[in-house]
Amino acid sequence: MRNVEIKARITDYENICKVAAELSQSEGTIIKQDDTFYRVNDGRLKMRFYADSSATLVRYDRDDEGGPKMCNYELLEFSANESEKALLLDSMLRKCLGARGRVVKERKLYMVGQTRVHIDTVQDLGHFMELEVVLRPEQSLEEGQAIARDLQTKLGVKDEDLIECAYVDLLDKK
C-alpha cells in the first residue's frame, strides 16, 4: 500500500478543524491511539492500540524530508476480540527488539476524497495536521503530491510549519 504524506505543526486548532469539516462535509471522527515504536534496522514498526481494545501492527518506510513524501506501508489488524493476541505480540516485540518510544494522541479524522486529513493532539508535543493521500495503483507520486499540496493550501498550512519526521522522532529530540 502507498500514500503521499504531509505533516505540519498547527497553531490554530479550532480553525483547521473547521476548514477540514467544511472540506469533508463531516464533523470528523475522533480516534484515540496509543502507539509503541520498536527498535528496527530499517523503516519503522509500531503497534497501535485503540480505545476499543483493537490494534494494528504497522510497518512503514518514509523518507524524513519536508513536503509531500511517499510512504509504503503494511498493516496487520487485530479486532477487539483478538486483543490478547495483539498484547502478546507487543510483549514479544518489546522483548526481542526493544521499545523505542511511545506516542499517545487523539486524532480527528476527516476524509476529503481519497485523502485522510488527521488533526492530532499529541501528548507532550501539541497540535499537528497530517495528510495521507491514499494512492490508487495507477496513480503516480506526482499526482499524490499535487493533491496533498492543494489540500495543504486549502487548510492554510504554511511550508515553514511542515515537519520532516515522525512524532516519535520529535519526542526523542525533547
What does this structure look like?
- Helices cover 28% and strands 43% of the residues.
- By secondary structure, it is α+β, with helices and mostly antiparallel strands.
- The protein has a single domain (2-173), classed as Hypothetical Protein Pfu-838710-001, CATH 2.40.320.10.
- Strands 1-5-4-3-2-6-7-8 form an 8-stranded antiparallel beta barrel, surrounded by 4 helices.
- A hairpin with a 2-residue loop joins strand 6 and strand 7.
- It starts with a strand and ends with a helix.
Q: What is the CATH C level class, in words?
A: Mainly Beta
Determine the fraction of residues in helical runs and give it as a percent range.
25-40%
The name of the CATH architecture is Beta Barrel
Radius of gyration: 16 Å
As for the CATH topology, it is Hypothetical Protein Pfu-838710-001
User: What does the overall shape look like?
Assistant: globular
Topology at a glance:
Blueprint: E1 2-9, H1 13-24, E2 29-38, E3 44-50, E4 55-62, E5 69-78, H2 83-97, E6 99-112, E7 115-122, E8 126-134, H3 141-155, H4 167-173
Antiparallel strand pairs: 1-5, 1-8, 2-3, 2-6, 3-4, 4-5, 6-7, 7-8
Considering the chains and any ligands shown, give keywords for the structure.
174 residues; alpha+beta; Hypothetical Protein Pfu-838710-001; 8-stranded antiparallel beta barrel; globular
